[in-house]
Design brief:
By secondary structure, the protein is an alpha/beta fold. It is built from nine helices and eight strands. It is globular and about 50 Å long. 50% of the residues are buried. Bound molecules: NADP nicotinamide-adenine-dinucleotide phosphate (NAP).
């Protein structure tokens, strides 16, 4: 049952847990790392810039001097980097309690591609996390009560289907639709992953969240109005925006397949509660098709 005004004070003790957060140096990932450090977790900060990661870790240490932080390099827009990361992670860790698939890019003005040629938002936000999760699945499977929690967005509602006939936006590119597709993919992925955990009787759940509208570096491509005005007037703080994913990852009452986000002002602000995603995200056939396409594109096959 969802309760209101869930805050970081509600996070249960995380001592002894390995929590991996992508994009932990900035915005929502940073605040999630901060909150979970305050509850004793061993936080693995997966960052594409080690310099930025070190600076973020130093900031967390000023608040929590005993924070257990491990900074590891990961570029989700490069399959080789994801594979190297997975190897390095396996060499250090024998369990993974929470995988927080948080990193993302939004509304890149002119189409860009990942190292392997995928449209940047779909490639980073969805395919990168799909590959990462698949490569860490063995650790997730052997960790009791593991969770995979992914950051989506209310903006997934900007599209009502994955466009399978042009998934990488080769025929035409619309920055907001490409972002919406990547965030719809995050939801379809989570719901299918949770169904697969259940079907294979794996002691793990997949949950998903959205932060509402939070002031972070994400809006750097959004133009003056969003970046400066909307961020200052409408947005909630990055700390508030981090609460839904932290709740989805740690609330003992959260169940597999649940989606958490704020509910005030058209889901832009507020404390995390259970919310509903669009109809397209619950389409099980589309989820299976996306899964097959994602395995084919990334070359990562899930061994349930
Ligand atoms: N802020 C909002 O209102 C809002 C709304 C809905 C959804 N979201 C979602 O929330 C998530 C976090 O975004 P944020 O708002 O916290 O923005 P942010 O401050 O820009 O943080 C994004 C993080 O992702 C990292 N990242 C980007 N590309 C990467 C790559 N190729 N490999 C590894 N890491 C990469 C960034 O690293 P660098 O610092 O090196 O760039 C940064 O750490 C995203 O998935 C976003 O779609 C945010």
């Amino acid at each position: 049952m969802a309760n209101t005004n869930w805050t970081s004070a509600n996070i249960p003790d995380q001592t002894g847990k390995n929590i991996l957060i992508t994009g932990a140096n900035s915005g929502l990932g940073f605040h999630a790392a901060m909150a979970l450090s305050g509850k004793g977790a061993n936080v693995i900060m997966a960052v594409r810039s080690l310099e930025k990661g070190k600076a973020a870790a130093a900031q967390i240490k000023t608040m929590y001097p005993n924070a257990k932080l491990d900074i590891m390099q990961l570029d989700l827009s490069d399959m080789d980097s994801i594979k190297h990361f997975s190897e390095a992670f396996h060499a250090k860790y024998k369990s993974l309690n929470v995988l927080m698939n948080n990193a993302g890019v939004m509304a890149i003005p002119k189409k860009e591609t990942t190292r392997q040629g995928f449209e940047m938002q779909f490639g980073t936000n969805h395919l990168g996390h799909f590959a990462l999760t698949g490569l860490l699945l063995d650790l997730i499977k052997k960790t009791p009560d593991a969770r995979v929690t992914t950051q989506s967005s209310g903006l997934h509602k900007g599209i009502d289907a994955i466009q399978f006939d042009d998934i990488n936006w080769e025929k035409s590119y619309t920055k907001w639709k490409a972002y919406a597709q990547s965030k719809l993919a995050n939801l379809l992925f989570t719901y299918e992953l949770d169904r697969q955990f259940k079907a294979h009787k794996i002691n793990a759940v997949a949950t998903v969240a959205h932060p509402g509208f939070a002031e972070t570096n994400l809006q750097r491509y959004s133009g003056f109005v969003v970046k400066y005005l909307a961020n200052k007037i409408l947005a909630q703080s990055a700390q508030m925006g981090s609460l839904p994913i932290v709740r989805a990852a740690t609330d003992k009452n959260a169940k597999g397949g649940e989606y958490y986000g704020p509910t005030k002002m058209g889901e832009m602000r507020g404390y995390p509660e259970l919310v509903k995603s669009n109809e397209a995200s619950y389409n099980t056939l589309a989820a299976k098709q996306l899964w097959e396409v994602s395995e084919k594109l990334t070359g990562i096959h899930y061994d349930f």
